[in-house]
DUF1573 domain-containing protein
Amino acid sequence: MKRITTILSLIAVVTLTSVSCKDKASQKIVADNVESAVSRDEADKKVPVMTFEKTEHDFGTIQRGTPQETVFTFTNTGDAPLIITDAKSSCGCTVPNPPKEPIAPGEKGELLVKFNGSGQNQVTKTITVTANTAKGSEIVRIKAFVQAPEATPAGPVK
């Protein structure tokens, strides 16, 4: 009796499986889904590209404590609006100020960088700009040779 039940159960499973798989996969495709996938894939190909005129600025020799600033000019050479979400420097002595508005394709933007002149001898600072580019971030650098102010002689002055 158990064998007959097992055999009938097995036949029922095989029959249900073969009946449910008779539909061809190509008949299950919805045309609207294909069209939306194609348009989504085309939109994914459109990304902004942040192209800087220069990626490094050298302030040269400066006196310690003398504030400096420079502007990194860039162009969106991609085919989608460029949105900068963050700009951070490698230390607190450097403050980047990126544009707040999206940069349209073909348009220029400016990244203002202020450096307070701290440090000693040769200093290099990096600024990481986070944006919606393919890489996700861009890096620019500033550097300077920082000299100590003229030392005053110790002792009484005549």
Notes: The first helix runs from residue 2 to 20. The radius of gyration is 32 Å. Residues 11 and 68 are 84 Å apart (CA to CA).
